[in-house]
Design brief:
The protein is about 30% helix and about 20% strand. It has about 450 residues and is α/β, with parallel strands linked by helices. The protein folds into 2 domains: about 180 residues, Beta Barrel (Lyase, Ornithine Decarboxylase, Chain A, domain 1); about 200 residues, Alanine racemase (TIM Barrel, Alpha-Beta Barrel), CATH 3.20.20. The strands form 3 sheets. Strands 1, 12, 13, 14, 15, 16, 17, 18 and 19 form a 9-stranded mixed sheet that branches. An 8-stranded parallel barrel has the order 2-3-4-5-6-9-10-11, surrounded by 6 helices. Strands 7-8 form a two-stranded antiparallel ribbon. Strand 2, helix 5 and strand 3 form a beta-alpha-beta unit. Helix 2 packs across helix 5 and helix 10 crosses helix 12. About 45% of the residues are buried. It binds pyridoxal-5'-phosphate. The site of pyridoxal-5'-phosphate (PLP) has 13 residues, from strand 11 and helix 14.
Length: about 450
């Protein structure tokens, strides 16, 4: 292995027994197998004990990075362990494929995949999938269609990569792009899976509930596509995916939003009932034509219900590993805040406002307040409505600001999980109040895929 996913500077951090340098060492530096001491907890804002635990963690993390300068991204090892094991409990024996887009740190993906119960990666671009295959990953499903001719040329030129990577398709036009790069006689067989639409076509004014991705929705449409793929030489239909975004990606337990929470829970129940029947019919129809290796479903927000569907063979999860703050708002689970970033106070415009350097790391999705970073420590700081989190400067107001001095640090959480990795080159791995290693993000490895 040529890359060095775990870096350690023992002189500075004094904690890692021996410098690690490869993927194998990365997985052992982040040892998630140790039992977690954190019991499953309800949402922190409702539970005093959990809140106390969180406070202890932030204080330890602050001590761990004292002396380091600049923006710091950190992974709390205890929280990472808790999350990895909690997802396994929730999946109740159904294998979990990890969504790499929601992590974007190879050492973390390796460490999670080293745990029994996790198998395979749901990659987000073909260049990424090729890179992971090059680094030894053997079970990679591309979660989204690709039209990247250059990457397709690399795929068809590498029989080993073609064995390891499954493309996602929902339209024969995507097969045309592959054939335009190399016809069936000029390449190894290409593994493909069908992405079937899992959204809910609700009756009445509610209409389409879910994401706009795949055009194939009904069992007839999906079976027709499967027939179309099977009629094309040089492709092997090996899998099916149905990602129920309206269930997995929709919060249903947000503090202060009782009416909306009730509506979302009603929607999820209805959508789930419709999906169970339709997914079963789709899987039966496609299996009658091709022996599928996998039927993938779900995400962090829907593991229990996705895994409970008898036609599903594996579930996907990614965000639940790092625990972006959007995932605080679910009734069924509460991930521990495993990833966070710390920025420095550079000035104090008033006694109860501090201004930190940076902060405007806004998450993708609808441009709502929920996509802003969440200041978490010291507790009680908030962004200002008129200014928000800025490109270079972010004012934070609250009683806690009075005790903060220029040079002190504030911890924030990103709304999503993997996007933080696009902002930093490395994550410091914190155990209690020590940095025990640092691991590069994809960006830190020179890889910006999307
Ligand atoms: C195809 C697909 N599967 C699963 C997921 C769930 O990922 P996560 O667990 O990070 O929410 C997503 C997220 O958007 C997705 O696009």
């Amino acid at each position: 292995m040529s890359n060095e996913p775990v870096r350690s500077d023992p002189a500075k951090r004094g904690a890692l027994a021996s410098p690690a340098s490869g993927v194998g060492e990365a997985a052992s530096a982040i040892d998630l197998a140790a039992p977690t001491s954190m019991p499953p907890t309800p949402a922190p804002h409702r539970d005093a004990a959990a809140r106390r635990d969180a406070a202890t963690a932030w204080e330890g993390m602050t001590r761990a990075i004292a002396g380091l300068d600049g923006p710091i991204a950190a992974l709390n090892l205890a929280a990472l362990r808790y999350n990895a094991h909690d997802l396994l409990l929730r999946a109740a024996g159904t294998p979990i494929r990890i969504a790499s887009k929601s992590i974007r740190i190879r050492a973390v993906a390796d460490a999670v995949l080293a745990l029994p119960g996790y198998a395979g990666i749901l990659a987000f671009t073909l260049p990424e999938a090729l890179w992971l295959a090059e680094h030894g990953r053997t079970d990679i499903v591309l979660g989204y269609p690709t039209v990247n001719r250059r990457a397709l040329a690399a795929l068809v030129a590498d029989p080993r990569a073609a064995e390891r990577i499954t493309l996602m398709v929902d339209d024969l036009a995507q097969l045309d792009v592959v054939d335009a790069v190399a016809g069936p006689g000029a390449r190894p067989p290409i593994r493909v899976a069908i992405d079937a639409d899992a959204s809910w076509r609700a009756p009445g004014p509610l209409g389409h509930v879910g994401v706009r991705r795949s055009p194939v929705h009904t069992p007839e449409e999906v079976v027709a596509l499967a027939r179309g793929i099977l009629a094309r030489p040089g492709f092997a239909l090996v899998g099916l995916m149905m990602y129920e975004a309206q269930i997995a990606g929709q919060t249903d337990d947000v503090a202060g939003a009782a009416a909306e929470n009730a509506l979302m829970r009603w929607m999820k129940r209805r959508s789930l009932a419709e999906l169970g029947d339709r997914r079963g019919a789709i899987v039966d129809g496609v299996r009658a034509l091709a022996p599928l290796e996998f039927v993938n479903a779900g995400g962090t927000g829907s593991i229990e219900t996705s895994a409970a569907d008898p036609s599903v063979t594996e579930v996907t999860a990614g965000s639940g590993i790092l625990g972006g703050h959007l995932f605080d708002g679910y009734a069924a689970f509460t991930p521990a805040p495993a990833a966070a970033f710390s920025l420095q106070v550079v000035r104090k415009p008033t006694a109860d406002i501090v201004t930190i350097l940076g902060g405007g790391w806004i998450a993708s999705g609808p441009p709502a307040a929920s996509r802003q970073p969440l200041p978490v420590w010291p507790a009680g700081l908030r962004t200002l409505g008129r200014e928000g989190a800025g490109e270079v400067q972010t004012p934070l107001q609250g009683e806690a600001a009075r005790a903060l001095r220029v040079g002190d640090r504030v911890w924030l959480r990103h709304a999503k999980s993997g996007e933080l990795s696009e902002r930093v080159n490395e994550f410091h791995l914190i155990d209690g109040d020590r940095v025990v290693a640092s691991v590069p993000s994809y960006r830190g490895e020179g890889k910006a895929f999307l």
